[in-house]
Amino acid sequence: MKSINGKVLPGDLTHYVVPDAEVVLNYLEVLELVELQGVVFTQTACQALHNKGRRFYNRLRNLLKDPRHDCVLFANEFQEFSYCPREKGESQEKWQTRCVYAAAVWYYNHLAGMMNLVMITEDLDAVSRFSSLNSGVYVISLQEYLQSFWPALQAAQDLYGSVRQALQEKEADGSQREFPEHLPAQVLEAGIKSGRFVQGILNVSKHRAQSEAFVTSDSLSSKSPDLSAGVLVAGSKSRNRAVHGDLVALELLPKVEWRGKVTALSEGPADERSGNDDEIQPMPTGHVVGILQRNWRDYVVTFPPRDAAQAQSRAAQRVLAVPWDRRIPKVRISTQQADALQDHRLVVRIDSWPSTSLYPNGHSVRVLGRAGELETEVQTVLVENCIHVPPFSEAQLREMPVNSPEKPWAADPAEAAARRDLRQTHLVFSIDPRGCEDVDDTLSVQRLAGGKLLELGVHIADVTHFVREGSLTDLEARSRATTYYLADRRYDMLPAVLSADLCSLLGGVDRYAMSVVWELDAQSLAVTKVWFGRTLIRSSYQLHYELAQALLNGEEVQVPELARLDPEERDTKLSELIQALEMLTHIARHLRAQRDRGGALELEGVEVRAQLDQDKNITALVPRQPLEVHETVAECMIYANHWVARKIQEAFPYQALLRRHPQPRQELFSQLVDTARARGFSMDTRTNKALADSLDRAVDPEDPLVNRLLRMMATQAMSQAVYFSTGAQPEDQFYHYGLALDRYTHFTSPIRRYADMVVHRLLTAALQQEHGGQRAAEPGKPPAGNKDMEELAEHINSRNRAAQRAQNLSTGLFQCLFFKERDPETDPRCVADAIIYSIRDNGVLVFIPEYGVKGPVYMRNKEGLVVTAGPDGTCEWQSGSVRRYSDHITTTSGCGSATFRLFDHITVRISVLSTNCHADTLTLQVISNQPHLGATPQRPGSPRRSQLVQEVVRLAGEAQEKAARRPELSKEEREFRQSRTPNLYSLLEEIRELALMDPDAAARAGTVTA
Amino acid sequence: MAGLELLSDQGYRLDGRKATELRKVQARMGVFAQADGSAYLEQGNTKALAVVYGPHEMRGSRSRALHDRAVINCQYSMATFSTAERKRRPHGDRKSTEMSLHLKQTFEAAVMTQLFPRSQIDIYVKILQSDGGNYSVCVNAATLAVIDAGIPMRDYVCACTVGFVDETPLADLCYAEESGGVSSLALALLPRGGQIALVQMDARLHQDHLETLIEAAMTACKCVSKVLDEVVRQHLQETSVLSR
């Protein structure tokens, strides 16, 4: 066995496999499958891959580094006895094959013949030449290898087949050139340096994918201000084979050829309009001259129905598959299964896009299922966001501690001794939503020193004690970075034994925790001392919000933990608990007031209260009334996060993981300011405090939705809060705009966020550094450097964005499935009240509070008819014209005219526009310019939505006639399984950070995880 | 093609060496009879020939003579066939002038010039094949030649280049590494006392790394000195056997 980089091939395999350079070049994907074990990559193959491109080589490098794959690198050209010099006249391919064979033979002898070696090559000549030379070294083709050694691994064979076909296609392609060639890399580099070309990421417009794309980059705006809004790339010819997300080099066109962006609503995806009449204000326009970095990922495509692909006699057919993401061009795939796969969704990879072809060539990787089925659609959402969540592997689960009735887990005495024991001394309790299973935060509070001091403690589950850095579980958690919440399911970051049991700070059991304990002056509540460290706790009460609030209000309620005690004891314990809760509330009020004084906190304060108005609707779990206890808990958590951020930043000034929320760009607020002006409100957006104040004032007593919409727009204008490494940003950029704190991080939810685990490790390292002398046995391992930390922060940020997108997409998916079941003409639920929040050239954008849906409503349809309103408000289509003003839009026709103003309520009918290849979308049609009759201005919308999810799930279950239909209980189960949201704190926090998402999305996030 | 990977994840360099490994050093002394001292040295594929005349009376203008020590006169040149591209290299181009100057400085620090006032020592070095580290190979060859000429020195002068890639110092760079954008540092050392005769670097490097880089260079130089010592002893043995 050869150990390279610490990785060792397992000894219990039947053989090791050595792929030839050509196999590695072309079929690396097949070798990437985790099931293939014992792969020995040779240096020769590695070099060949390196010559093909850095991207491919990096994939191999990552593969070699990843401990989940059983593969090693053998530097055969550096080994004296396995090196073969190239002979005169020998072609490179032949030489590489010979090298690999020599390496395989050497390796076989090196292992003293104890392990058979299989060399796989696509060179049949080599198979016949080498196969009989050595007894223990077999030489066969890849296909034969897969068939004889891995007959059960159908996925590998399918993948092999599709890659092979794509290769054959490539060889036999035509000649007619459709696109200009890309310029060579040196020319591009020189051009970018000299300023002739600009580089940036290509963003294809979602609504006009065929014709419009933009290139934006950070460097653009700093170099020349007129390019700051991006550069337009119009039409597919000038896009020149660049795909959404690629890093491209552009050449700007002369100013006379500049064009404007189209602002009209495009009428349905099928309708591609050149948009020449609506153009306004030309912007910089360019065309792509070269591609610096492809950014291809796995794409989901749908096979077109049979009639579209005309009859072919050949076995292999070329099919133009339509990607699910409209921004991606159609992909040409050659396959023999075109018939069987009609209307199925598949994962494909793009291989190449030669200049002779209108479409890129690709190959299929795996089949997801029939389009339109729930399971397929959910998988589609995951793949499109690059979310990869296989079940936890056995090796990962083996790392987990055991906690079963036969072998209950108990705290290790040695470990317990090293920790501060709070079991006897502190009254620890948790406040969470009802039924929550993963409790990651608990609180304690008590009086010290005869009442002169107060001690406040926040105790967070000590996940990093169980998940060692670099272990398989840690790697998996790192690659997931967060728990993913979809509308109907959840993918955990950590195995259930940790997330719901050992790390969960349940009542009445011993648990490890990571604590922050403050000593406060009882009068002024100023911090006199703060202590961080690992502790052992036993939570005495597992309260839920309603119960805690009821206790505070002095109501007579049953505390389950006290039910069995005799009355006298119960009373003392109860008063003890109530006293603690009161103290906690007192402290939290003070903290909040303190931050208010610090300035700027009004924004989130209001934000939260407004949010609560919606939150009460989110689930049955969250109370109808915003309870003060929510804020109390949230306040303590923010305080803990803030203090931990200070601690780790001081200990590691250049490599601490913090979270910042950058100042929004003022120009992004222009829509908000204009819209508010239409209603007579003025917005001051200069600072977060000013913005919060103006939002506060912008209340229309008759229509609470106005304020909600304005807040939504304000949050949309803000950028997202992001993680970063302190070494990568100047200190004045650490500021958290939403929370108005100079330093902030995430510390309190390590069960569902990887960032918190990193912060826990940093804190541990900081503490060890401090007590270096005392615990010499365990010297503080320095945490990762700034570069690694910044990379990690980037990764977590991108995963969080993906999680967010996946959540929104899956909510949208369920909305569509819900309305698909109903007939829009007859079902009353398909008619809803909507409010106009933006005016466009040929229509308006509306928000439907009842379902939380936003969408366009057209005032002019494809035939050129416009909407007119009858005397009773009913709308009809008539021929006429549309005129747009800044705050309203007017349609004129033979029967008169109708005007739609900002913030008008109208009635719309919701129907589903089904497309085979893409996600279904909701279409809204105006049926009356009066508010919907049944509509109360703010009807609880969200419970509706959680029902909606359940209903869709149920229907899908029935449709598939699954034997294992969810039992009656499943509603509770689904609702109470886990507390992500439930943890109201997290909800509040998310909102505050905010602006992170728009309140609407936040509300959805709530629903989803309830 | 993508850029070269100078140090692989497995810790190998382009030519299969580890980071601190030197190229193979082979040398012979006394290759010319008519010169006072001469040596030929190969370090990997870099080959150099050094010839020493002197100490002798000042030639040319006597005014350059120093009254208390000897003048060291160095001349560096490259053969037309020494690089991949065949190129006529006239004497006195900037690069070789600079290199000559560096050599001169190095040997002024090592040779006991005060023993030969008003005289001159000529050191001529020619690169026959260039594969990176020209300066250090020249220094090493010239050291042997000076020893062959019997001129007293304080110590061997050993030189080595080091580069810095991925936070790791690489010893004895070859041509591909030197041209691959590594920031390289050349250092000439009197190994026994650990005195530095010359350090030369014209790339950018973070100050924090300089310490480790010089450390690595000194270790490499000490390794070179062992080889040179071996060569000298071997040579002495051979010549004394012959003369016996």
UniProtKB/TrEMBL annotation, chain B:
Principal cellular location given in the protein's record: cytoplasm
Compartments where found: Cytoplasm; Nucleus, Nucleolus; Nucleus, Nucleoplasm
Matching CDD domains: RNase_PH_RRP41
Domain spans labelled Exoribonuclease phosphorolytic: 21-152, 155-219
Entry-linked SUPFAM superfamilies: Ribonuclease PH domain 2-like, Ribosomal protein S5 domain 2-like
GO BP terms: nuclear mRNA surveillance; poly(A)-dependent snoRNA 3'-end processing; rRNA catabolic process; rRNA processing; U4 snRNA 3'-end processing
Record GO terms (molecular function): RNA binding
A GO CC term assigned to this protein in UniProt: nucleoplasm
Pfam families: RNase_PH, RNase_PH_C
Keyword terms, alphabetized: Acetylation, Cytoplasm, Exosome, Nucleus, RNA-binding, rRNA processing
Gene3D superfamilies per the UniProt record, alphabetical: GHMP Kinase, N-terminal domain
Subunit structure of this chain's protein: Component of the RNA exosome core complex (Exo-9), composed of EXOSC1, EXOSC2, EXOSC3, EXOSC4, EXOSC5, EXOSC6, EXOSC7, EXOSC8 and EXOSC9; within the complex interacts with EXOSC2, EXOSC7 and EXOSC9. The catalytically inactive RNA exosome core complex (Exo-9) associates with the catalytic subunit EXOSC10/RRP6. Exo-9 may associate with DIS3 to form the nucleolar exosome complex, or DIS3L to form the cytoplasmic exosome complex.
Annotated family: Belongs to the RNase PH family.
Protein name: Exosome complex component RRP41
Organism: Gambusia affinis
